[in-house]
Every structure is written in C-alpha cells, then in structure tokens.
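Researcher: Next entry in the queue.
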Amino acid sequence: MKQFKSFCLLSFVLVAAAILVSCCGIEPVSPAQGSEVVLHTPIQQKFLQMPREERRAYFADKACRKELISEGFYPQPVVLSWKTCKDCQKEFTVTLSTSPDFAEGTCTTYTTKEKQLEVTNLMIATTYYWKVQCEKKCSRVSSFVTEDVAPRLLKIRKVGNCRDLGGRIGLNGRRVKQNMVLRTAGLNQNAQAVYYTPEELQQNPQFLEKVKELNATTQLLKDAVKEEVPFLLNGEWTVFLPEMESFGDEELAQVDALTEIPETFLGAKGVKMTADKDGAITPGKFIASLPSVLMMDFVSPKTGIMPFACGADWYWYLRLNGITYYDRRGGNDKLSAKDNYMLFLPVKEGHNLVTVYLGSGSGGFTWYCGPVPQGMPLETVVESGIQENEGILVRASTKQGKRDENGKQIYTKGESNLNQEGLDFLQNTIGLKTEIDLRGEKETACMTGSPAGDNVNWFNFSSSSYAGMQGDWGREQFTKTFRIFLDEKNYPIDFHCIAGQDRTGSVAFILNALLGVCEEELYLDWESTGFWNKSKDFRHEPLFDKLVAGFQKWPGNTINEKVENYILSLGFTQEDIQHFRDIMLEK
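Model: Structure for this entry, 587 residues:
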C-alpha cells in the first residue's frame, strides 16, 4: 500500500509537470536557476589566477603569449537554453534583465528560432533574470549570477581590446561602477596619408633627384673599403632638444651642412651626456613627438667600415659626415634594445661627425649604440647594413606623401570600425555620451566627430604613455583628459588610442588607482591586453615598469596614494578627486 501511494504521488508530480509545460509551453533549462556563470575562457581564467611573478614570466615567453590569445579576446558567452512541449518553428523572444520585475531601462531583448541563445557583454558580479516568450506563451523567470572576476571583457566586433574600466573593488570596498567608462582600441582606423602613384613620382623632379641621392648613398656603402675599423664611439654625446614637433627638409639641410658640433642647434643649447654601460643614453624628460639631436666627433686611424649595433624607442636616423646612411623615421616596429640593428659606417681617416635624429616612443626616449656582439662576422654586418640602407630607397620609391599648398601632408579620414551591432551596443546598451580620443593629430586627421554618432561628444587629447605621463607634455595632456571625467554629464565615456594598450593603458592605470583599485588589479588590467596582443615586445620591463616607476617617485605608502598626489600636483583638489570617486564608485 505504501509503495502504491508513493507511485501515485510520483505519477501526480509527473502529470502536473507535463500539464505545466503544456500550459506555458516553455521551460528554462540552462543556466540552472541561481547558478553562477563564468565570463572568461579557460585560458583567460588560468592567467588571471596566476601569481604576479608567474604571470610576468608567462607574459615574456613567446609560446605562452600565443597560448594567451588562442581563445581570443572576447568574453566567454553565456548560453541560455530552454525546452518546449513540442517543436516550435516560430520565433522566440528572450528578455534579459538586471531587475526581477524587468523594469524599464534594465532589459535587453533578443529574437531567435533556436532553443538556445549566446549572450555576451554581461556585467560581472551581477544577477540576471531572463524569460522566453513565443506568441502568447511565456516561460517562468529564471536567474543566474555572473562571476565576480575582472576584467569585464567586451565584444564589439572589429574594435579590438575592449573592456569595462569598472567592476573591480575600489576605495572602502566600494565597487567601481560598470557601463560608465569603457577602454577600447580605436573606434575608427587611423587617418591614412595620401601618396603619389609611381607614375606621378616619375614626373616629379624632386623625387627623381631624391632617388638619385639615395642610390648614390647605397653605392657608397657597397663600395666602402672593406677593412674593419674598431668601434670608436666613446659614448660622449652632445645632445640638443629643439622645441619642434619634427624635422622638415629645411632642418635636415642644416644637419647636412654641419662639419663640427655647434654650441646651439635649431635654437637649443648643446648638453654633454654620457651613455651608460649598455651604451644607452636618455636625452632628457620624455616629450612625445618632440625630437632630440645627438652629435659626436670621433677620429679614425684609417678609412674603412666601423660595425656598430643600435636601437631606439621609435624614430631615428643616422648621418655621418653629412650623408644619411640609415633612416628609420618611419618607425622601428621594435622596442628599444642595444642589438635591434647590426649596421656599419664607412668612416674616413681622421675627423668624422656622426649625427643621430631621435624621436620619442611609448617606451621612453632612449638611444642605444655600441659594438656588435663578439664573434659576429664582418660579412654579416655588411649585408645587414646594405639591406637596411636599400630599404630606405624602397620606402622612398613607394611612399612619397602628397602635400598641400602649405607643405603639409594630405590625409584621408580613417574608416569607422563600428558595424551596426557595435553602434547598437554603444548607443543603446551603454548610452555612450562621450568619446575621448587619445591619438595624435596625424592619426585623427580629417576627423570632426565621433564614429559612434553625432550625439556623442568627441574630445581629441593626444596622450603620452608610460614614463611620459611624468613629463610636462604628458602631465598637460592628462590634465585635459581628467577634466572630462569630472563632469557627470559626460558619462558614459569611452576612451582609447589606436590599439587601446599604451596610451589607453596608462590613463586607465591612473583612473583605477585613483578609485582605490588595488595594485594587483592594476597590473591585471594592463596585462589583460595580452588576451589581444601576442607580441612578446609588449611586456613589463620596457613599458609597464616605467609607468609604475614614474609614480613611485611621488609621496605615499601605496601606489594609490602616490597617484593621488600626482593628481594633486596637476592643480586638481581633494574635492575634485572626491567628486570623481562619487561618480564612479557604487554607494
């Protein structure tokens, strides 16, 4: 009798469940009611759980970095699934909300003919409620909670390196608000210089003369006496820091005309500086885009070729006795190191004058120059030097920029990276009001507004990065940027450079530190770019360490206090800082 009653009870439950499903027709299956869901891929989880020193070693390993990006930069989607009493060929409407009563302004709606749906861009540490409808039938409300692990990665197709600045725990245990500030790569591509076609170049007398000069210089290297001269640069440089953004042809002609080191050059007084044991010389405070000029006299006992190794943070070229042999004003594509390039110079017997034009880079403002590694064959150095020099001719032959009547380079506007899905997310989900573009004037040429829409305010404040945040120009530019964050009407905000890693990462570091985010999370925020960038050159030692070291000079017991004192040194007040925190920290 007891077994019969149990059987009857079980039958009643099953029948009731069947009736319930047949009545509503739709039943949520996954995620299970009240369960926690993970928003990072397994490799992302693995990295975020590593101790700092282990992460640092992993970051510097080429194979590990490839592994880090193998699952992509996007967050792991949450899969919502449901079942119905019978196959339904009609469309389902799925509503997802942060409110149990699905209050207006808290919902996102999706449609699908499948019985499951992938959703992304969910906030971390947040309870979500969802339901499914098909015609007049509606499921019960189910819920799940997202993991409390930052960063909150975002998926905006065609826009790389996207994440929310918020989500982490800040000052006094208050969480940094989400959907308030995003950090991304560029919302559009960089402006593109307009170049002459090969046919146009052949009709340009100035170009033809330039090619003739370059061919002659290349021939000088090929014809140089192949008798090795020892490395004669003693590390004693005379350094000039002219107040100008870059050199034009007129200034370069002045370099060509020099036969000895002057007292002043381009309005700047020469300063004696000595390279360190690694052959490195840092001309002075970091000022992005501003050049320095390094000069050195030396005497050679004979005519021949002098092998040398060199490197720089970004732009450089080298002239010997008025002739340009190596021109890297187009950029290094390398981080500074003393063995970036293995080259040689055709020195003459007696007096020689070497001149280096050096532009700044994101890692600092450094020039390396020293002997090539012991045991490197002279033939290898000669081949490398001639190839590098011939590259100048190739670049000149294929990339001669068109200029307007005032001599300025002509650009075309960079194309938008936002498709309709990306626009919908920024405009409707985020409600973006402000875009802060940290790129330089050449990168944003021809732009007058935000690619995210006419209703988005666009501010273009070219930013420095890393060590440069401590320089006069870096401080000035960050001051402009931070003022935007002090006006509540500007939120939500997206800020970015082109890659979202160096300039953007430096600004993000300051903002998060000011909000009280702990040092470990400051590291993790910068390192999360590794989910997107596999290059082993993007690593701590030449980049992030310089950012941290710059703030270590300020008073304070923690990195947060040091950053706060940096902000105060820019002319902001404690009231300003508190206002920013009140805007960005949950109550």
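Model: Residues 442 and 468 are 19 Å apart (CA to CA).
Researcher: Noted, moving on.
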